[in-house]
Write the C-alpha cells for this entry.
Amino acid sequence: MSRVCDRRVEEAGQADFSYGHPVSDTEDRPQQPAADPVGGPPAAGPAGDSAGEVAGDAEATAALRKRLRYPRRVVLVAGAGRSGTSTLAGVLQRLHLHVPQPEVDADTTNPRGFGESAWVVRHHERMLRRANVNMADARPDAWLDTARVAAMPNCRVPTSKFLEEQFGFSSEVVIKDPRLSWFLGLWQAAAVRTESTAVVVTMLRPPAEVIGSKQDHYSNRLGAPHLAASWLNMMLHTERAGRDLQEGGGRSFVRYTDLLTDWTSTVMRLGEELQLQNVLHAGTTAVTDVDSFIDPALRRTERTLAGTPISAAMRELVEETDAALNSMADPGGDTAEVRATLDQLRTAFVDLYADAEAVARSTAMAAVERGRREGREAARAEVGPVPAADDEGGATGLARRAARRLPEPVKGRLRDLRNRG
Amino acid sequence: MSKVPVDGLQNLQGEHDYDIVWPWTRPGGLRNGSTAVLRVKNEARSLPWVLPGLLRVCDKVLIVDNQSDDGTGEVAKRTAVDMGLGDHLDVVEYPFRVARAGAEHLAEPELSVHSLSYFYNWSFAQVDTAFSWKWDGDMVLTAEGELAMAEFGWRSFRKDVILKFPRHGLYVESDRRAYLDLSLHNAEGWGFPIGPDWTYTKSFEWEVRRRPENTVDAILPRGLCVELKYLDGDEFGHWTDPESFATSARNARKRYEWSVFNALTNGEVPEELITIDAPEGTHVIDYVTKTWLPTAPRPLKPPVRAVGRTHDEP
C-alpha cells in the first residue's frame, strides 16, 4: 500500500537544537530581541497565533507584517575575524533584518556588540570541535574536515530547523560569526530546505590591520606568520565557497573602510546587489539609528604589511590576494579573470603550506610524542601510584609477559645487548 | 592487472586510436577543477534533467557516447548551448560494443576495447582536471545536491578522498506521477581524484576503481540525487541477463530494484515507495528534484523501511 505524501507535513513539536541534550530556554532558544537604546529591531514573536504582531503598537505591527511578506533571504556575513563583520551585522540589524536572538554579549574587543547569535556560535563551535579544526585554522585540509562534519544529518537538520524558526521573526535573516566561512555550504543547504535564498557578503579589511587587530586583542599569542597564513586560508577559501550559489542567490564584497566612511552608498549597493528589501525600503528612523551606530573610530588599527614580520613569499601572497579581493569589491569586479587569479593564489597557498608542513614534520612528530607522554602521565595520575616493578599486573609486568613470548634468538640478542651495558 | 603501466594501456585489438594515455603524463598535466564523466548509451530522454545541474557546478562535463542511436550527443549539446554553457561540455564517441555487466563482462579480457574496465579507463583518460565525478546518464541532482557537489568538489582539492553520494530510485510512470524509493541506504563512491592511484581494474560483474591507502571516505547527506527509472523503458539492458545478478550478495540492490520495477509495471506499488504527483504544468522529475526532496522533512525516510539492502553497485 503506498501513500501520497504531503511534503509540507512537518514533524510535530518544536525544533530540537540541542544535539539531544536538554537546554534551558534562556540558554539556547531564539529569544525576543532585547531592548536596544540605539534603535534595535522591534520585539516580535515567532510565527504562530501572534505572528506578525507587536502588542499594543498598530503601526509597528503593520510594518512587521509587511516585512514578513518579503521573499525569504538569509544573509551570510563572512570574512576573517576583525574585518568589520560585526559592524555590518549591526547595520543590517538596525535596518530591520533579523539577527537571531539571544546574541553574544558585547565586550571590550567589540563594545558595540558582535551581531552574533549565541546559538549559531555554539553550533559552529561544536562542529569545529568535532572536526578538530580551530576557528582560525590555517590548514587547507580543514575545509574538507569541516564539510564532512557539516554533512552529517545531526548538523544539517538542526541548522535548517533553526533557520525556519527565525523566518517567523523576519523574512530576512542575518547569520554572522567568524566561524561561518567553514560552514557556508551548510547554510546554503539550510536555505534550500527552508525555501529561502542565501546570499553571501564577504567583508574585506587590509590584512595587516586584521593581523594587527588580532595581535592587539588576543595578546599576540599566535604570531604574525601564523595569522597571515590563517588569513590567506580563510579569505581564499571563503571567496571560493561564495561562488557556490543556489539559483537566485548572489554575493557581494564590502570593504570595511567603505562601510565606515560612507555607509549609505555602501549599504545601498549591497541592498541592490542582494535584493535585500529591508535595506531598499528602510525608513528614516532606521537610517538615523545606523548613523548613530557607525563610528569611523571603530577602525582602530591602521597598519601596513611592511611592518608585519612575515617572510617575503608570504607577504607577496598576502598582497596579491588582498589586491584581487579588493578588486571584487568594485562594481562589476567579480569577474572570471579575478576568479582565475584567486584560483592560482589558492593553489600557491596550498603548495606553500604543504612545503611548510613538510619542513616542520620533525616539530609536529615531537609535538605528537609530547602529547602522548602527557596523556600517559595524566592517565597514571588518575589511576594512582605505578605498581611495583615485580607486580605482574603493572606496566613492567606487561613488558615481562611480552618479552617471554619473543623467539629465543631475539631473547639471546637482547641479553647480549643488556650485558654490554 | 595488479600494476598499472606508467605509460598507459594498449588494447588487445590493436585499435591504437583508442589506446590509453594517462592524462597526468600529458604536457601541462592536470588543471584544477572537476569533470563529470558520463558514459552513456541512449540517454537522450534523461539528459535534459541530468545535465543542467552538472553543467552549473562542474568545470567540465564529458559525455562518452557509446553507440547511441537516439540522438544522445545532439541532445547533450543542445542542452548545454541552451543554457549558455556550451563551452562546459565535451562529447566524445567510443565506437566499440561494451560488455554488459555480469557474465559478459567476466568473459571479456581486461585490455579488450569491449571490457568495462578498459572503457572506464579510456573515458577517464580524457579528463584534464584533478578531480572527477563518475556520473550516470540517469542521475539527477536535487537543488541541495548541486550545492553539495560544487562544495565538495573544491574542498577535496589534492586530497585522497572518495565522495559518496546516496541516491534514491525514482520510478517515473508519467510526466505527472513517479514513485520515490527512500528505503535504500546505499552510498556509492562518485567523486574521485584523477591520478595513477585511481585507475580502474576488472572485478567480477563490473569494473572497480583502485584507491590508495589511507583514503578518506566522505559520505554526503541523503536527498541529493535521484536515479531515474522509466517504467516504460529498458532499465536493466546494461546487464547480461537477470541471472547475472541473481545470487551474489554484491547484487542484492539490483535484485531489489528488479523486484520493485516489475511490481510497478504489473500495477502493484510496493509499500516502501512514496507516490508523488506533480502540480499541473510541472514535470514530476523537476518537482521531485527542485521542490519535493529539497524541502521534505528530515530525516528522509520511507513509509515502510525495506531491510538488508545496502550494497554498493553500478
Observations:
- The mean pLDDT of chain A is 81.
- Chain A has 18 helices and five strands.
